[in-house]
Structure formats: structure tokens, C-alpha cells
Amino acid sequence: MALLNRQLGFSLTHLRSTVIQRHFSITAACQAIQKLTRVRVVDNSALGNTPYHRPPKCIHVYNKTGVGKVGDKILLAIKGEKKKALIVGHKMPGPHMTPRFDSNNVVLIEDNGNPIGTRIKTPIPYTLRQKGEFSKVLAIARNFV
pTM score, two decimals? Predict the structure, then answer.
């Protein structure tokens, strides 16, 4: 029995030290939009559609938590420039009956909130319409989910 306790105790301490060294993260913010998250521009603006060797990345989220959800403004680094954008879809599952997208979708906006492009290529969540803050972005959208 003592031999079994020694073997089991050694394996448990080995397992515990392995888990401590790995630094696993189990927070919900892993799939939402935060700093250095790659995003996809879904409007037809010239800045968002011409190919470039680096994908657009989020460099700041304009809210208290630092984690962007649908309807939040973010600051993007795109082609060596800084541009503001609006999140219109993300990978992380949201509240009940809200869509979950395959990519983190954003629409480029100007400083005053007007969209840079003239059309949005992907469906937009219906929850943006309920917020009522970005009516010009909603006006250029084709589909709602």
C-alpha cells in the first residue's frame, strides 16, 4: 500500500507541476475581440478590401472591460494606419438567440460615426438595430440575422 501511495503521490505532484507550468487560460475573453485580435473588414471600403501582407488587428477597445462585443467601437491597425471600426459580429457565443459568426467582423467608420464604405457584404445582427446608435451603418446593410 505504501508503494502505491508513493507512486500515486509522485504522479499527482508531477501532474500538478505540469498544469502549473502550462498556464492554461479558461476565461471567456479568449474568443471575443480584444487587443491584437485579427479581424475581417466586411464593408466595401478601399482600405479594407485591397490585399496587404498583414491582416487588420485590434489595438484598442473603447469600453471599460477591454473586451469587444457586438456594437462596440475599436481602433484598428490596418495597412500602417489607425482607423476606428464597429464590431458587427464575433466568434464568441453571446446572449440567448444572438448569432455566432465564423470570423470577427468589423465595419470601418470615421471619427464622427459615419461608415467609410457604401455597402456591407455580410449579414448584421438584429441586436444592432435595437441599440439605435449607428443608424448610418444600419442603412447600408443588406441583410439582418
Answer: 0.75
